[in-house]
Amino acid sequence: MLKIELLDTSHNRKCFDCGNKQLNDYLQNTARQHLVKGMSRTFVLVDDAHRKDILGFFTLSVCEVESKLLPYRIAGKYPEQVPAVKLARLAVALKNQKCGFGKYLVSSAVEKVIAISESVGIIGLFVDAKDEGYGMKGRRIWDERTKDMG
Ligand SMILES: CC(C)(COP(=O)(O)OP(=O)(O)OC[C@H]1O[C@@H](n2cnc3c(N)ncnc32)[C@H](O)[C@@H]1OP(=O)(O)O)[C@@H](O)C(=O)NCCC(=O)NCCS
């Protein structure tokens, strides 16, 4: 069964390859340090049967967004800087890409951020997308999950 877990030292980070060196390096060398220091949280997708193998991961951190960058209809309602959560990193292992895992990870990130938003004031989840296409997909999942929240 697939599970999302907080990255820990039992996960095999060194074997992870998503085809992007920066993202591989981040998972292998930086993600745990940032997690231990409380700067971000990295979650990994694993299969129960082989839970050391990382199928994919995402990283969440807190960010401040300039309200002038928000959609025009809401920008004026906020002060200049507003608190939010950032989907700072997202990757799926090469051999597991195009199986829906990316979408599953984004969906899990959105669920976590909705849960956070019940106890901490944030205006939403922002994506540092390498290309607009994947960012738009994340936004559609967020919109779908939050449409009843007013
Ligand atoms: C981008 C990435 C996370 C997608 O993961 P994946 O498991 O292959 O994606 P999925 O199978 O869940 O695909 C979900 C949807 O996103 C689309 N998609 C996948 N990669 C995309 C990309 N780079 N740009 C736009 N759309 C993309 C798929 O076509 C699919 O669309 P559909 O639902 O309309 O069919 C993965 O390819 C990856 O790790 N790439 C290398 C690192 C990277 O580019 N990270 C993203 C940083 S923003």
Q: State the order of secondary-structure elements, H for helix, E for strand.
A: EHEEHEHEH
Shape: elongated
What is the strand arrangement across the widest sheet? Answer: 1-2-3-4-5
Q: How many beta strands in the DSSP annotation?
A: 5
The end-to-end span amounts to 34 Å
CATH architecture: 3-Layer(aba) Sandwich
Description:
The structure is a single chain. The chain has 150 residues and is of the alpha+beta class. The protein has a single domain, classed as Aminopeptidase (3-Layer(aba) Sandwich). The protein is 35% helix and 25% strand. It has four helices and five strands, in the order E-H-E-E-H-E-H-E-H. It has helices spanning 21-36, 72-75, 101-117, 132-146; strands at 2-6, 41-47, 56-66, 81-92, 125-127. The protein has a five-stranded mixed beta sheet with strand order 1-2-3-4-5, sandwiched between helices. A hairpin with an 8-residue loop joins strand 2 and strand 3. Helix 3 (101-117) crosses helix 4. The longest helix has 17 residues, at 101-117. The chain is elongated, with a radius of gyration of 16 Å. The model has no long low-confidence stretch (mean pLDDT 90). The structure holds coenzyme A. Coenzyme A binds next to strand 4, helix 3 and helix 4.
